[in-house]
């Protein structure tokens, strides 16, 4: 097993109460223990249900939002997942016309450039969050959890890159590839050996971003997506994992 990145100090809250509340709310989101609209209980309700203070709940929600697991809208509430994007309607229209390998080709065009921009613009806090997402992906025990954390890492890199047009293109690709049938194809392509490789590649991407080396970040992302592309293609053709 490769040596994983050490979590940055800013990722570890020394207060056990804050960690308890963060873990409890994260579990609610990851296990999808929510109504159909994905809305979380209010801060007051969460505090009452968890026997915690509002401040601990608020800190937890801020952390989960930075991880890309929830989003908040003033006057509406807090919701699991990503905020609605105009690309959703377009993705729904074209999903039947796009195969998974075409989506991977598009990712290879977009995401290395996003990783390069991310290396140029990431703050120390951004890097700490990316390192935490790498660790979460590595520690995930189930395929669905691994997929969730993996997606959160790639979305975080895209957001930190700070280019709205490129982020929209990324979001469109991400929406297309999140179909249930496509997720099943990706799960079949994820063997234990491949997951270990992906973990190593994620660590290299974040190391390059941390070093503010845009060219290395782009190449590390390209290497990662090429491995995903080849493994997905092999899985879809019936090859052994």
Describe the structure.
This protein is mainly alpha-helical and 241 residues long. It folds into 2 domains: 9-80, Winged helix-like DNA-binding domain superfamily/Winged helix DNA-binding domain (Arc Repressor Mutant, subunit A, Orthogonal Bundle); 87-236, Four Helix Bundle (Hemerythrin (Met), subunit A) (Up-down Bundle). It is 69% helix and 3% strand. It has 11 helices and 2 strands, in the order H-H-H-E-E-H-H-H-H-H-H-H-H. It has helices at 16-30, 43-50, 54-66, 87-94, 100-121, 124-139, 143-161, 164-177, 180-188, 192-210, 214-236; strands at 70-73, 77-80. A two-stranded antiparallel ribbon has the order 1-2. A hairpin with a 3-residue loop joins strand 1 and strand 2 (77-80). Helix 5 (100-121) runs parallel beside helix 10 and helix 10 (192-210) runs antiparallel to helix 11 (214-236). It is globular and about 50 Å long. The relative contact order is 0.13. The model is unreliable at 1-11 (pLDDT under 50).
Produce the secondary structure layout:
Elements: H1 16-30, H2 43-50, H3 54-66, E1 70-73, E2 77-80, H4 87-94, H5 100-121, H6 124-139, H7 143-161, H8 164-177, H9 180-188, H10 192-210, H11 214-236
Antiparallel strand pairs: 1-2
Helix pairs in contact: 1-3, 2-3, 4-8, 5-7, 5-8, 5-10, 5-11, 6-7, 6-10, 7-8, 10-11
Task: List the helices and strands in order.
Answer: HHHEEHHHHHHHH
The CATH class of the largest domain: Mainly Alpha
Biggest sheet: strand arrangement: 1-2
Number of helices: 11
Number of strands: 2
Strand content: under 5%
Give me the oligomer status.
single chain
Distance between the termini: 18 Å
């Amino acid at each position: 097993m490769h040596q994983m990145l050490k979590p940055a100090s800013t990722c570890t809250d020394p207060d056990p109460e804050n960690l308890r509340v963060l873990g409890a709310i994260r579990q609610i989101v990851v296990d999808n223990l929510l109504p159909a609209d994905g809305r979380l209980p209010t801060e007051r309700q969460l505090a009452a249900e968890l026997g915690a203070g509002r401040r601990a709940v608020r800190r937890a929600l801020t952390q989960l939002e930075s991880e890309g697991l929830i989003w908040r809208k003033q006057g509406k509430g807090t919701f699991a997942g990503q905020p609605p994007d105009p690309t959703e309607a377009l993705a729904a229209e074209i999903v039947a016309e796009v195969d998974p390998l075409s989506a991977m080709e598009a990712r290879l065009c977009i995401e290395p450039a996003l990783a390069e921009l991310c290396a140029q613009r990431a703050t120390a806090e951004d890097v700490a969050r990316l390192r935490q997402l790498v660790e979460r992906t590595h520690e995930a025990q189930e395929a669905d959890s691994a997929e969730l954390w993996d997606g959160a890492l790639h979305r975080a890199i895209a957001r930190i890159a700070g280019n709205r047009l490129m982020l929209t293109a990324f979001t469109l690709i991400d929406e297309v590839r999140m179909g249930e049938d496509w997720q099943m194809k990706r799960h079949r392509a994820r063997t234990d050996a491949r997951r270990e490789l992906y973990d190593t590649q994620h660590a290299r991407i974040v190391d390059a971003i941390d070093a503010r080396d845009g060219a290395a970040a782009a190449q590390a992302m390209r290497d990662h997506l090429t491995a995903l592309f080849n493994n997905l293609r092999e899985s879809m053709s019936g090859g052994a994992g």
